[in-house]
Amino acid sequence: MEESMKEVACNEEVGTSCRKSHHPERVKKDLTTRLNRIEGQIRGIKGMIEKDVYCDDVITQLSATQSALNSVAKILLEGHLKGCVVERLSEGDNEVLDELVVTIQKLMKK
């Protein structure tokens, strides 16, 4: 299958490109630990809502969870810049800069 056809097939199959990240195992472990903690925070917030906990307390927990998600995004963005972006630029693929701008815009619209 032609390379561009593979990319289209992957996009249709899972909604993302076929490119893969190359995070070291320690980074994957750190991200997974952080995401597991965030998952627990979300379950805790859900429980707070079910128990009619005071709104300000729920908002405080939401803020802490958002901060934790932002930390995950920062780690991923740093790895993306130092790894994927540098690699693609060295290969002469300047399209990665347009992708990076879109990614940063997505992060900043919060």
Automatic annotation (TrEMBL):
It comes from the Bacteria. InterPro entries: Metal_Tscrpt_repr, Metal_Tscrpt_repr_sf. Pfam families: Trns_repr_metal. This is Metal-sensing transcriptional repressor.
